[in-house]
Amino acid sequence: xxxxxxxxxGIVGVPPLSIMEMLSSPEVEIYDLDEPQGKTDIETxxxxxxxxxxxxxxxxxxxxxxxxxxxIYIDTGPGKCDCAVHTATVLEDTLPExxxxxxxxxxxxxxxxxxxxxxxxxxxxxxxITASVQSTTPFQDLPPCEPKAGFWGVPPRDFSLxxxxxxxxxxxxxxxxxxxxTPDNLELELHYNPNxxxxxxxQSFCAKTALARHLAxxxxxxxxxxxxxxxxxxxxxxxxxxLELSKI
Length: 248
Description:
Layout (H helix, E strand, L loop, with lengths): L6 E6 L4 H7 L4 E5 L22 H13 L3 E5 L6 H13 L4 E5 L10 H4 L4 H10 L17 E5 L15 E4 L1 H7 L5 H5 L7 E6 L4 H11 L3 E6 L5 H13 L3
Parallel strand pairs: 1-2, 1-3, 3-4, 5-6, 5-7, 7-8
C-alpha cells in the first residue's frame, strides 16, 4: 500500500511558535523559503518582483515557483518587513494552487541567545540559528565566549561572507531576535556591544539598511555593509580590511 506524500509547507520569516508547533509532524515537510533551496535560479523571480526588492524576498519567490508548496506561512507583521505584505499578494496571484496564510509573529517569550554568544564558526552559527526557526524548543545551553568582533544584522543570503569572521564573533540585530524567537523585539534588535569592532549588515534594498547605517555611525568602531544577492569581492575586502585594521 502506497503511503500518501508529506504536505509541503513553506515558511517565510519567523512564524509564531504556535504555527511551528502545529507543523511539527512527520506528515509535514518544511521548506525555509528565505534560504536558497538547491539550484533554484533567483532570476526566475524577475517577472514577479522588481530588482529593488531584497535578495531574500526574491529568493522566496524563486523557491516558491520551483517547489510549489501546498501551503506557505508568511510573516507579514513588523517582525518581518512591509515588503513581505506585498510579496504575499504576489504569491497568492501567481500560485493559485498554493494556500497563502499571512501571520504576524509578535511572540514575546524569549528563548535565549546562547548560539549568538558561543565560540563557533560564524557561518555554522548563523546556519544553526536559521535552522532553529523550525524548532519549538530552546537551543541547548552553550557557554558564552569573550567576544572579539560583532556581526549585527540579518542572516545574509550569501553565507560565504561569514567565513571571514573569527570564531569569537557575537551576533546581534535581527539574527539574535531570530534565535530568541521574538522577531518583533526592537529593543533586542537595537542592542550591540560598543566595545568590540562590529559589522552592521543588511541586504541591499532592505528597510533595515537605514538602521544598520545609523547604528554603525553611533558605534565607536562600526562598519556599515550591504550586499544584494551575492557577496562580491568588494564587500569581502571591506570586511577583511576592517577586521585586520582592528587587529583581530
